[in-house]
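Input/output pair, single chain:
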Amino acid sequence: MADINAVAKQFTDFYYTTFDTSRAGLQSLYRDVSMLTWEGTPILGASAISEKLVSLPFEKVQHKVTTLDAQPSSPGVASMIVSVTGLLVVDDSTNPLQFSQVFQLIPDGGSYYVYNDIFRLNYGA
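Output:
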């Protein structure tokens, strides 16, 4: 297996750059069996996930990754869990939001697709 941390970094760089510039382009990373849980709401399937991401109520967004951790998620397949925390700057706000996101990536040919995706904003107490 390729260096898991390098694969995770390459994936997240691509994911967040695409999210920040053209959210519709993320649909190809998901499959009909993929699930996104967005702030506690489950969404199943690539088209429904893409529809949710495209319909988010902001014009501009920028992800700033703070931490990135990856682990293999199966002894028999080169799948992985990727955990990300960071800051989300929405519509040029001066107050970035903290977020966490976890992906389970499954090998597909020479790349990976997102099987599970869990996103949460982290609010202070």
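The longest strand covers residues 61-72. The radius of gyration is 14 Å.
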